[in-house]
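Aim 2 progress. For Tetratricopeptide repeat-like domain-containing protein, the working sequence is reproduced below.
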Amino acid sequence: MSDTDSFIEEVTEELRRDQMVKTLRRYGWVVAAVLALIIGGVAWSEYQKAQERAAAEAIGDGLLGALAEADPTTRISQIEGIEAADPTAKAVVSFLKSSNQAEAGDVQAAIDTLQTVVNDNGVALIYRQVAQYKALGLMAETATVEDRRRGYGDLAIPGGPLRLLAEEQLALIDIQEGDADAAIAKLQSIVEDAESTADLQQRALQVIVALGGEPDLSAVQAPPLEN
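Predicted structure tokens for this construct:
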């Protein structure tokens, strides 16, 4: 390599280094900012997880402390003092509050508590439907047959998670109104439904027999084998 070529390479390398320095000076803050955002985002994510974990533990400790009380009124008071920001946690707290209100004899308050879950669009559908199902059960002695039938009918829609349980309640309403044939038809459909559990099938079969019907046993699940 000639001295001229060597000199040209040195000059080229020097220019490359100068260009890199200028680039870093010009855009280095952008790189630093991006890195800071990434690191900060990871730190914030971990902080959020820690906060959520701490909140869940606080709710759990509060519920355990409340349920340790013998008197339902005392349990209700302690449950009301539990702060839950997460919609699912709020629903769980409301379920326990409602259960204790019913135990204390204040059925209407229990229904009202469940209704707050039903009306909360921020809560997952399954929890809202469970709340509606439980509320309808508490209204068995006070609501009209039409209202109960309408309520369970809303839960018995195809694809609903509580569809079969709602169908069972609709069959019991048929029995209450003296329509045994309609009840048997609903109960037999429960027995034949692929999503029906063994326990639900057995309950339906027992009621069919009690009503004088002859159930079709072809779809009944075999009991689990004992080890």
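Residues 163-220 form one domain. This observation will guide construct design in the next reporting period.
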